[in-house]
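[Automated response] Your request has been received and processed.

Submitted sequence:
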Amino acid sequence: MKDLIDREDLLERFVAYCRLDTQACEESTTRPSSDGQIVLIEKLAEELAGLGLEKPFVDPRGYVYASIPETLPTGHVRKGKAPPVGFIAHVDTAPGVPGQGVSPVVHRGYKGGDIVLPGDPTQVVTTKDNPELEACVDHDLVTTDGKTLLGADDKAGVAEIMALTRVLVKHPEILHGPIRIAFTTDEEIGKGAEHFDLRRFGADFAYTLDGSRVGEIEDETFCADTAVVTIRGRNVHPGYAKGKMVNAIKGLASFLSRFPTDALSPETTEGREGYLHPHKVSVAEEEIATVHVLVRDFGEDGLREKEQLLEKWARETEGEMPGVKVEIDIKQSYRNMKQELDRHPQVMKLAEEAVRAAGLEPIKRPIRGGTDGAVLTAKGLPTPNIFTGGHAYHSKREWASLDIMCKTVETCLHLVRLWAEKGEKKRGS
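Generated structure:
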């Protein structure tokens, strides 16, 4: 099936998508949170229609839904019995790193070694930080010029789904059941699946294309909450403040000083270790200070333990600074999807078979993050994650391998074949 993939068309689409500024905006109250996402969403709907898909639908919140009819012929033993399977990617890119004016650079036939990015020579994609480069010698790689992020997270997945669609439309001899396509918005700010219409999508099972390393298929994510910690003080004229002022900024400093520097943080944890990550601070004079803390663990018990630790630090801060009040509001983000996915073992079993059919060895490991799939799985649509070939996400040193992107498309082609041959519909569907 790999010979059916037009790698130059895939590259052209990927580069074109990366050039569009689709950064999500955490402060926005609209959905999608930025106009650039709408531009790409509308472009994808037009391209899907141009490929021959009937009536791709864009809903008011920016989701795109489309379908590819089954090709199993009349009289085939599985005609009408193969479950509808979906493929999903998100169009937004991460805030926090410049995303406007992306200038992708294609490195043909990578020869190994560090890659100095031409727009900013201080930005270097090193083999030390990217050991995956060792397996990418002679690949065609895509980076930025070093001034912005690339957006491979998740425009690599978007381009791969478009390439998959192109192959299936052009080659109806590939027998498959009903295929559902969807593109989401605002995944990077935790809103990607918030309003996803499962009924309109119409799949029994799905896969997000939002992973990284070649061969990875992921069925486990963090459990995630956000703790909004508010420190309240009392502001008076500083010239007459003795015995009266309670400085919320100093209260915030006291609270943050309790976070350990050698543990419980993203920079000191790996594997299955969770963390507490203060990532956004706002201050309204000396009266109110707020910090958003990301709480992450692979189990809900570990999540509760970390939230109890925050409560302990809050009370200690109040004891240290009389007059300061510390309030904690826990907001749930998503939960580990593994428990629910384990109830549908065929979803991962066929993914592993598809990876092997593409000539790769499946790699299973937990995601130290989340995907739309975590929320969709909780809503009743089992949705593990598949590799895309992108690396160093959310940075100016982000890069992707076109050769691995082709392997992703090949894996998905085997997936649709396997679901047509072996898939079982969900009960009640």
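Summary generated for your ticket: The longest strand covers residues 223-232. The chain has two domains: 2-221+336-422, 224-333.
If you did not submit this request, please reply to this message.
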